[in-house]
Amino acid sequence: MRARTAEDQIRSGGCHCGAVRFAALLPDRIIAHACNCSICEKSGFLHIIVPECAFRIVSGAENLSEYRFNTGQAQHLFCKTCGVKAFYRPRSNPDGWSVNAHCLDAETRPVIDIEPFDGRNWEANARALAHLSREPG
Predict the structure, then answer these.
(1) Cα(66)–Cα(106) distance, integer angstroms
(2) How far apart are the first and last CA of the chain?
């Protein structure tokens, strides 16, 4: 993992049962997006989008199940044991990951500012997120 900024720190997290664990490099304060699309609204997913270089699956990759719908581009990954989606490969950012802010461990969680995102009107708004997964430099 490579830091995006000098303030980035490793933040750990995982699913409910602990079978799937991840790490993400995040600053002390970050924006998370509350999307109103059908899957995010029903599951309560709160998006923190990071580039590939700022994320890694620490353990439990073999315990992930995949779900794709609509265009089939987003790779929704769920723990086979508890069913929690702690992160996934979003359609808007196929070069990065979306971490569920709710799945970050309390002891490493940054301050999170929540902004709404209109995912119901996906095609009109998705490009507003594209820059979030770009690697630095």
Answers:
(1) 26
(2) 15
Q: Which CATH number fits domain 9-132: 3.20.20.70, 3.40.50.1010, 3.40.50.200, 2.170.150.70?
A: 2.170.150.70
Per DSSP, 134 falls in state P
Secondary-structure breakdown of the chain: helix, strand, coil percentages, each rounded to the nearest 5: 20, 40, 40
**Residue-wise pLDDT tens for the chain (137 aa)?**
665 666 899 999 999 999 999 999 999 999 999 999 999 999 999 999 999 999 999 999 999 999 998 887 889 999 999 999 999 999 889 999 999 999 999 999 999 999 999 999 988 988 898 889 888 76
What residues does 82 pair with on adjacent strands? Answer: none
Give Cα separations from 6 to 10, 14, 103, 108, 136 (angstroms): 12, 24, 24, 17, 12
